[in-house]
Amino acid sequence: MDEKLPKPTRALQKEFPKVWKSFQELGKDCHSAGPLDERVRRLVKIGIAAAAQSEGALHSAVRNARKAGVSSAEIRHSILLSMTTVGFPRAMEALAWAEDILKRAESKPFPSRI
Question: What domains are defined for the chain?
Fold first, then answer.
């Protein structure tokens, strides 16, 4: 069980493992369904989470984007792009949520990709 997941998600994972596995498989299938590379997919997911105003989804999307080598500047830019569509307050909220993860990540050196 992934300790980084929120408590309600871990509870669902434990109580309904078959549903959790199906959900994970759906995510994998969606990611492999088209021509977008991983970096682009991760930036799209950040934009979707920002627009949906989902703090948990945004945290997850930022963590996954960082693992895929997306820079903090690229993450912030993808959220700024949402401002003219979802509005200033929503974009600012999404930026604040992203900073929750980015500040933690920036306090630790990001491994270089070779």
Answer: 7-35 (no CATH), 37-109 (1.20.1290.10)
